[in-house]
């Protein structure tokens, strides 16, 4: 078990970049869904404790995907040896529980990934992708904000009907909603 | 009429389902909906106390694969309980009644439960030649559909036929087969696409509506978010092979045996929103990609008209993705603003967080995508 120092963290981020840069030049070079404006970059990697031991957490940007990555501090970390490719693992991050999929890449070793974007055609350039990656990482590492309740429904219920049967009944199967009165959720059949 | 006062629980017990089985059904269903144990007891309570809601199940132009999927819900308990519970007052595939007697049930339900029953529609109406291409019970299906929709509290579009049109609406669509939301325009239509939809998704949506007496949260295309907010490509267990550029190049090559990514074999996972990669099929035994075949994208609009099932996705523009992936369009905005990036980041993070109790704090109108 190796505790990740800043030097080790930087070295592993670089190793990850090197491994995926090779894929970028290799089998992904002519992949139609790639975004040529982007390059391989490991963003914001930092030590992160997992049950199986210390790990590093960050975001990987490539011309074909943007993933949250959890990687072992060393390629041959025995705690990661039993991880099979394609296996799913849920991990609690400050934002909530996130499901990761195990993978492995030549020259780097095993990792856990969670897809944020793929393909990544919506990013105009590397700074745009980098900024989004940094902000996503921030969001992952802070507790979720309390959900702002939807704006008070106006002219929906005036107390003349049966009360909604449970919490959140504003979008319930009320006669008003069924008749298209009030604010019908988008995507319901009306007018589409 | 007297049936209207019965609760789900009464009906279930009368059909010989034990209380133990009933409670197990509640916890199984709560789990399939991604809800916690609290929801299971909430569900049990609702089913014990609330009057049963009749369900009318109509069939238009379709192949009955949705019914096949539904009645073969992998866990026998689910189909037992649900079939007792919803009691399918009318479903011409599995009801005992036939002929005039069967058609009379429709009118009875319309009169006795107006405004209270759920209309589930499998297949769609062909509108060409005044609807003459589909005449169940001696009348054009479109008329029956409109009449029964007029008294329904909500309408469920089962499968890709009812939701999008599916194969009978593929070019050149000679019968003018039309998805039901274009005919039923004064009601919420809940789209449960797929060819067929996964059994657990169908029973989950129906159970949710019957027990919580409310619509599930829908995305902008009218699909329940609890099952259609994840893209196959994002949750695919073969995704690391895509990221690593490891592809099956031809059927049964060495890479296929290694379980590499099927993108080059035409997999439509990158443009398909469905629960296959998490719920899977046949009681979680497998799903298309696990069995070695690419995703056909059967739950996406017009999937028959999007080229061969085996042609490689060259571009995702033009698919149904834009409506879901709210972040698309950043490139069009040119120099990226922090606001746009922050929104894209927040949407992506929100999408990956597992929601244990999504029914209690859900946006109901796609507001997280606004």
TrEMBL record, chain A:
Residues 140-192 are annotated as: Disordered. InterPro entries: NiFe-hyd_HybE, NiFe-hyd_HybE_sf. This is Putative hydrogenase expression/formation protein HupJ. The lineage of its organism: Bacteria, Pseudomonadati, Pseudomonadota, Alphaproteobacteria, Rhodospirillales.
From TrEMBL, chain B:
Keywords: 3Fe-4S, 4Fe-4S, Cell membrane, Iron, Iron-sulfur, Membrane, Metal-binding, Oxidoreductase, Signal. GO terms for biological process: anaerobic respiration. [4Fe-4S] cluster 1 binds at residues 63, 66, 161, 195. GO terms for cellular component: [Ni-Fe] hydrogenase complex; ferredoxin hydrogenase complex; plasma membrane. One of its GO terms (molecular function) is 3 iron, 4 sulfur cluster binding. It comes from the Bacteria. Pfam families: NiFe_hyd_SSU_C, Oxidored_q6. Residues 1-46 form the signal peptide. Its EC number is 1.12.99.6. [3Fe-4S] cluster binds at residues 276, 295, 298. Residues 228-309 form the Cytochrome-c3 hydrogenase C-terminal domain. [4Fe-4S] cluster 2 binds at residues 233, 236, 261, 267. Its cofactor is [4Fe-4S] cluster; [3Fe-4S] cluster. It is found in: Cell membrane. Residues 63-208 form the NADH:ubiquinone oxidoreductase-like 20kDa subunit domain. It catalyses: H2 + A = AH2. Coiled coil: none annotated. NCBIfam families: hydA (TIGR00391), TAT_signal_seq (TIGR01409). Belongs to the [NiFe]/[NiFeSe] hydrogenase small subunit family. Heterodimer of a large and a small subunit. This is Uptake hydrogenase small subunit.
């Amino acid at each position: 078990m190796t505790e990740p120092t800043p030097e080790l963290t930087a070295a592993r981020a670089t190793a990850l970049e090197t491994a995926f840069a090779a894929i970028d030049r290799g089998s992904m070079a002519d992949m139609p869904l790639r975004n040529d404006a982007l390059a391989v970059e490991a963003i914001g990697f930092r030590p992160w404790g997992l049950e199986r031991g210390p790990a590093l957490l960050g975001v990987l940007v490539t011309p074909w995907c943007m993933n949250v990555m959890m990687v072992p501090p060393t390629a041959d970390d025995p705690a990661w040896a039993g991880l099979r490719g394609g296996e799913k693992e849920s991990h609690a991050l400050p934002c909530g529980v996130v499901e990761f999929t195990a993978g492995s890449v030549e020259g780097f070793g095993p990792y856990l990934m969670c897809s944020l974007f793929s393909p990544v055609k919506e990013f105009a350039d590397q700074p745009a992708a980098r900024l989004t990656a940094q902000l996503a990482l921030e969001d992952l590492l802070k507790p979720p904000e309390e959900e702002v309740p939807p704006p008070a429904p106006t002219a929906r219920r005036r107390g003349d009907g049966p009360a909604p049967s449970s919490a959140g009944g504003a979008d319930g199967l009320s006669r008003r909603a069924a008749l298209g009165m009030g604010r019908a959720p988008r995507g319901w059949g009306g007018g589409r | 009429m007297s049936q209207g006062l019965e609760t789900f629980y009464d009906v279930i017990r009368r059909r010989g389902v034990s209380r133990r089985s009933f409670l197990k059904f509640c916890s199984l269903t709560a789990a399939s909906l991604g809800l916690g144990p609290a929801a299971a007891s909430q569900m049990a309570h609702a089913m014990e106390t609330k009057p049963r809601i009749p369900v009318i199940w109509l069939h238009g132009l379709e192949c009955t694969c949705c019914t096949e999927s539904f009645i073969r819900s992998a866990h026998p308990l689910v189909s037992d309980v649900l079939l007792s519970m919803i009691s399918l007052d009318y479903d011409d595939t599995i009801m005992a009644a036939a002929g005039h007697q069967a058609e009379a049930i429709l009118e009875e339900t319309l009169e006795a439960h107006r405004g209270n029953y759920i209309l589930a529609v499998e297949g769609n109406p062909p509108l060409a030649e005044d609807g003459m291409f589909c005449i169940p019970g001696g009348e054009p299906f479109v008329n029956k559909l409109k009449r029964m929709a007029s008294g329904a509290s909500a309408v469920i579009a089962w499968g890709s036929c009812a939701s999008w049109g599916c194969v009978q609406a593929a070019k050149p669509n000679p019968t003018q087969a039309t998805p039901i939301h274009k005919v039923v325009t004064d009601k919420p239509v809940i789209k449960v696409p797929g060819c067929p939809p996964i059994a657990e998704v169908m029973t989950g949506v129906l159970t949710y509506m019957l027990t919580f007496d409310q619509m599930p949260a829908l995305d902008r295309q009218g699909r329940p978010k609890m099952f259609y907010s994840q893209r196959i490509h994002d949750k695919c267990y073969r995704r690391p092979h895509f990221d690593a550029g490891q592809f099956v190049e031809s059927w049964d090559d060495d890479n296929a045996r290694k379980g590499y990514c099927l993108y080059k074999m035409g997999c439509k996972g990158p443009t398909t929103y469905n629960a296959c990669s998490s719920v899977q099929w046949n009681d979680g035994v497998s799903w298309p990609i696990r069995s070695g075949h690419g995703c056909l994208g059967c739950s996406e609009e017009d999937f028959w008209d999007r080229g061969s099932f085996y042609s490689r996705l060259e571009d995702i523009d033009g698919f149904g993705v834009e409506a879901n992936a709210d972040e698309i369009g950043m490139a069009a905005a040119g120099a990226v603003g922090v606001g746009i990036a922050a929104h894209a980041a927040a949407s992506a993070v929100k999408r990956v967080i597992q929601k244990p109790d999504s029914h209690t704090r859900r946006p109901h109108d796609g507001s997280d995508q606004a």
